[in-house]
Amino acid sequence: MAKAARRDYLRRMAEANPIEAFIDRHRRLFVLTGAGCSVNSGIPDYRNADGAWKRSPPVTFQAFMAQQATRRRYWARSLIGWRRIGRAKPNDAHRALARLEALGKSEILLTQNVDRLHQAAGSAAVIDLHGRIDQVRCMGCDRISPRTQFQDALERLNPEWLAFEAAVAPDGDADLDGVDFADFAVPACAHCGGLLKPDVVFFGENVPRPRVEAAMRHLEDADGVLVVGSSLMVYSGFRFVEAAARAGLPVAAINLGRTRADHLLALKAEQPCDVALAFLL
Fold first, then answer.
1. The one catalytic residue among 26, 94, 118, 130
2. Which strand (E) or helix (H) includes residue 252?
3. pLDDT band for position 229 (50/70/90)?
4. Parallel, antiparallel, or unpaired: how do β-strands 144-146 and 196-200 relate?
5. Structural contact between residues 277 and 92, judged by C-beta atoms closer than 8 angstroms
6. Is residue 130 among the annotated active site residues?
7. Of the four listed, 2, 122, 158, 248, which is most buried by Cβ atoms within 10 Å?
8. How far apart are CA 68 and CA 71, in angstroms?
C-alpha cells in the first residue's frame, strides 16, 4: 500500500472505533487467530508483550519422534494439563467471531489454536492450521482416535499420576518439573502398535500442504485481513499476512504487544481480544 494511501486509510479508521470501522468497511474478512483469543478461557498464551517466550519453548517434532524419554515427559505433563483444556469453554472473543461469520462478513477463520473453541462458539468456516488437540494420530497407520479415549488409557496405566497438580501451560501442557518420568507408561496404537502423537503440528513440523493451500485460496477471495490475538512470531501464521501485504490487502491486528507484522499493518488495537470485539455482541 502506497504511503499516502496508507496515511489516508489510517485517518479514516481513527474517526470511530478503529476495529469496528475496519470490520464495517470489509465484506469478506480473512480472520487469523492465535493464543490471545483463548486466554480468557483459561488457556495460557506462549509469548509476552515483546513476542518472547514466557516459558521454555514447546517440545519439537524431532525430539518427540526420536526420544522415548521426551514422549514420556510430554504425555505425563499432558495427562495433567488435559484436565483444564478438556473442560475449557469459549469466551466472548470466540463468540464475537462466530457472530462475525453469522453476519456474513467472514471469508474464513484460520486459527493457529488447537483447542477447537471457535467451533464450540458456533463458527463453522474454520481451518485448524495447527491441528486439533482433541484428537490423537497414530504415526504408523495414520488412524485418528479421540483424545478422551487416550486420556482414559493414560489414566489406567498411570493411576499414581492422578494425584499430581501443576500449573496449566499452553495447549494442554502442564508445568510439571522436578519429576522422574522414567516409569510413565505411554500406550501404543491398539491397531498397529505404532507411536501415538497428538493430532497437532509441533514446532519443527510442517503444516500439511493442502491445509495451507486451502487457506491461501480463501485469502485470494478476501478483501481484508483481521488478526486476533497473535504475535505472528511463527512463520506458519505470518506467511498469510505477508501474502496479504503483497496482494495489497489491508491488515488490522488486535494484540497485546508487538507482532512480527507491525510494519505491514494498516491498523493495530492493543487491547484484549474480547474487549476489542465487544461491539459484535
1. 130
2. strand 251-254
3. very high
4. unpaired
5. yes
6. yes
7. 158
8. 5
